[in-house]
Structures are given as structure tokens and as C-alpha cells.
């Protein structure tokens, strides 16, 4: 039996209130990390060592405990669950989120380095006002003939960054041997270009750093990085059948049944939002939101749009094989 | 409906089921009917583990700061944080004030730990009485009964309570500005934080259900003869009594002021000025209804409403209703106020009703085409 009994749960709650971690709760936490990693339900790229062995499990266990669980994470969980089932669901999600967040932090400085490289190498951007420090150069879109330096606040800039919509600026894939998540050049370019277009004014790297810091707070810890370090290469191959299947399985683990059904009705059956809503007996807005969440999750597990489509096809094939939708 | 943290099973639950350690009939039935869980369940049989030794290492010495033990107060009042149980799940809420509609009921707002989702309608509390930073989602509020409050967790500082009330007032009235300590504002419907808000509204909807049912029962008891069968108000009351919608979620989803929804519920439409056509159209669209679905109910409500036609100003209300900024329409109305005479004759009211319905239909169809 992996789950806690109600008695163990009540005891764990009492122990926590006295500042102690009960033995059954400790073992339960360990089981979550062990089972998710050893059953290949976590991408390798989320492991601190690049593979899921005993060392990685121990390291994750230590990090999760000290970074999150004993600093309010367990209190958060116990405030929001009533039984052992709820606790396992809450903590499983908490572990996934913490792993993603930790992996994103490892990759954080590269976000700005790659942005600088993007601005420098792409024909779509140009330096309008040069400066001695790369932080102070004013960049704009090459197509602009007359643009002034941005004079608004960072807060307004961040608000405009949010308005650009859903972005999987950090993607990861289990087949990657690298320990860092893969950053999608496609997404980064879309994001930076979209921001310039939306603001309509010249920006510096300092502005972009402020935007990253807020919009991707979990992924960005400090702007104090060397801008001269080379970024990692981002070229990736298309996943083979087995890789796509493994990835689809991991995506499934992060989705709800309703989100899977919405994907199937929209992309397999080809129903409109209204038709899908009628079929599922839910509001149109719920279908729309479920679809956005599901697509976002798939994008997080893929390196580009082509791969995302392959994974979605595989996911739908697995979920509805021999089933009546 | 049973309210759980997530409906789908965790991997550990699936493993226990797979190993025969769980006798939970409900869990097995869920797996059989769930595309997501059935695939994961089957995959667990196939997934081999390189290392079967699951024994955990010795527990490390850990320092966990115990939570502040606050004695349960005698009186429930603003600023208190409570844990509320619902089925297999729980939520933390902050009391904003006392309900005027029900006895021993309170206006509460949901406290969420996901502060990275904060907008300018979320008050972020860093100096936390809960041991972790959280935010008070002032947009996600409702009425709760005192009996629903399960465990007292602590109280906000008086400064934070003031800021919460200021934010709440801003949300209800649309006046003033959000206080300090809130997140970055939303400036587009594409903002991913709105997606999170929608999920939160849906997830926390059961919190308000009990009090809302009481309010509806009270309204029936106070006015049993009221015809609730055919007007817009009756239609909306029916919608709000379902599992799908609550008052505040409808306000939020339609992006209208709650005062507008209240007038729709009371069958008090603005027949004379027709300034409420735009928010009404938003509500109809959000509910996935067509003009034909609601035409008769709205006509009934319009006949129940006060007002008529302003002599010599036919067509003005269309202009006012279409004005993008309410203040423009309002200033126009102020200029014209007193210059026209209101015609409340049946014929004039009938013309106004036809005009109102015509404009509403036009608005709904235009949006549908776009």
C-alpha cells in the first residue's frame, strides 16, 4: 500500500503542527519521487543529473523537501486536502511543478543570452541607438523607420507581455540527454518580436530582462549574467514512434480526462467549439479553456510545433484506441 | 457532485489499484471510464523499473517551523483566514465582511498560493500568517455560511484587511483604483492568467453553492406568487441554480458589472435609455444562447420594467447604447436630461421594446458573424 491511511494522515497533520515530519509521511513523499521517476513518467531532462537513477531521486528528494515542502509546501498541501487520495494528487502535481521550476531555473540565464543573440543575428531586429554596454543598446524592428525609445513603466511592459498570450518559452523533452530544458527558438522569437510589435517603441536588454523576470518569474532569478557566454544549440530531431509514445504518456499524466476528450472532439472528430460543448454538456468557454490548457501542456513536452502535432496524434490514438468517443 | 482536488487518479493511486492494494470501487470505475487514467493504468503494467528497491533512505533531520497557533475566535469577522472543507478537498478563504442577505453568513474571498498568477485584482500577502506567500483573489468571492468554516488559521493585519476591502470595493463598483500590493493588470483576453482564473472559478464554485441555495429559497418564501417562469430574471435564476454557473462566475465570464446582472435578475431593464443592451448581449453570448432562445423572456422583462420612450428622441438610445465608453453616453444623457418628456403610453413602450429587441438582435448577430 503506497497511500497513507487516514490514521497516518491525521497523525502526519498533528506532527506537522508540532514542527515534525512523521515517518509514514516521509516514506510516502519518497514513494512519489521514486515511482514517478522509475516508471518513466518524468522526462529525463527534469532530472538534476540527466537520468533517473538512485542518486537523482535522492537529490530531488532533498531539494523538494528543503526548497518547498518544509518551507510552507506541506502546510499548503494540508490546508487544501482532506484525505490521502487528495494528498497524493496534490503532492504529485506539486512535485512535477517543482521539478519544472528547478529545471527552468537552471536554464534561466540562457534566456537573456539567447535573446541577445536573436536580436543580433536576426534580420528582423536592429540596433537603433548604440551604447558601450549591451544592456543599454536600444533595439527596434528593422522595418521601423521612426521609433522612439520606450518611455513607459516596467509594469506596463510586463502587462503587454502577458497580453501576448500562451507561451511555452521553456520546453523540455525526455529524450534530451542534456540536463537543461530545451528552449524553443521559435517561441522566443515569437515572444520578443510580438513584444516589440505590441509596444511599438525601442527597447533595451534591460527592459527585456525586466519582462522575463516577471512574466517567467519561475524561470528567471537574476539579470546579473554574462552576455558573452555562448548559448546552447537548439536543433532537435523528430521523435521516433517510441519516443512520441513515451512523451504522449507523460502528457496524459498532466491532463484531465475532460481535457483529453476536448482534444479528441476538436482535433480528431473535428467538431466546432459549440458542437464539442454540446457533446460534453459543458459551456463553450469551458471547452475553449480546456483546449488551451491541453495544447499548452503538449507544447511544453515538445520542441516545436511539428513535434507537438506528432505527440497529439499519438496521444489521441492511445487514449481512444478501441474506445467509443 | 463530489468535489475533489482533481477528478483523475494520481500515479500512486493507480499503482495501488494495479497491485490489488486498493479496493476502491469508485476508483476502478473511474479508470474504466476515463481515457487518461485507463491508458496510464495499462502503461504501469508495462513500465519496468530498473531498481525495484523502493525502501526510503533514513529520514533527515529537518527543522520545520510549526504554524502559529491561533485560538479560534468567538466571533467571525473581517480579515480572518479559515480552512473550509468540501468533500475530499479544502480551500482557504478570507472573510471580507458580513452578508446582508443571510443571517450568520459572510462574504469571503478565496486565498490561493499560486501568486505567479496574480493580476491587479489579486492582493499578494508576503508576510504570511499561513507560512507561505499567498494571494487573496478578490475577484473570486461569494457568500458562505458560518457553519462551513472549518478551521481558523489566523488573521490578516489591519493594513492588509483595509487593502482587501478597498480592492473588493473597486471590483464591485468599478470605481477607484486597486490598492498597492497587487499584481500586474490584464490588458488582453489572450492573457494566460485569465485561463487560470477561469479554472479557479470553476474549481471553487461549490464553496458558494450552499449560501446561494439559501438565498434562492428565501426569495421564493418572501414572494411565492412571483411569476418566475417566463422572464429574463426567471431564466437567469434557473441558470444560476444549476451546477454550471454562480453569480460571480457569470459576472466574471461575461466581463460585466455585477450591478447589471442584478438588474437582469430583477427584471429591471433600461427600457428608456437602453444602456444595458451591451452587457445583456455579453451574458447571452457567454451562456451560449441565441437571440431566438431569449427573445420572449426579454420581452416579458421589458414589459415588467419601468420607462418608455423619450419624445422627440427616437433613435438616441441606440447611440447611447453603442457608445464604447459608458461615460460618453452618460454625459450625453445629462445634457438631454429634462429636455424631453417621457412617453409611457403602451404604444410608446411597445415601440421602445421593439427598438430594444431589434438592437439586441443586431448586436448578437454582428458578433456571431465576426
Describe the structure.
The complex is a heterodimer of chains A (325) and B (370). By secondary structure, chain A is mainly α. Chain A has helices at residues 6-17, 23-38, 54-80, 84-121, 154-162, 185-199, 205-215, 241-254, 257-268, 273-280, 284-300, 305-320; strands spanning 125-129, 138-141, 170-171, 182-183. In chain A, a hairpin with an 8-residue loop joins strand 1 and strand 2 (138-141). In chain A, helix 3 crosses helix 4 and helix 4 (84-121) runs antiparallel to helix 7. The longest helix of chain A is centred in the N-terminal third of the chain and has 38 residues, at 84-121. The radius of gyration of chain A is 22 Å and the shape is globular. The two termini of chain A are 33 Å apart. Chain B is globular. Helices cover 45% and strands 14% of the residues of chain B. At the A-B interface, helix 2, helix 3, helix 4, helix 5 and helix 8 of A face helix 1, helix 3, strand 2 and helix 5 of B.
What general form of chain A does the structure show?
globular
List the secondary-structure elements of chain B in sequence, H or E: HHHEEEEEEHHHHHHHHEHHEH
Query: Approximately how much beta-strand content do the residues of chain A carry?
Result: under 5%
Which regions of chain B are unreliable across 5 or more consecutive residues at pLDDT < 50?
1-5, 313-340
Number of helices of chain A: 12
Rg over C-alpha atoms of chain B, rounded to the nearest angstrom: 26 Å
Output the radius of gyration of chain A: 22 Å
Mean pLDDT of chain A: 81
Helix content of chain A: 55-70%
What fraction strand of chain B? Answer: 5-15%
In total, the number of strands of chain A is 4
What portion of residues of chain B is helical? 40-55%
Task: Categorize the overall geometry of chain B.
Answer: globular
How would a crystallographer describe the biggest sheet of chain B?
A: 6 strands, antiparallel
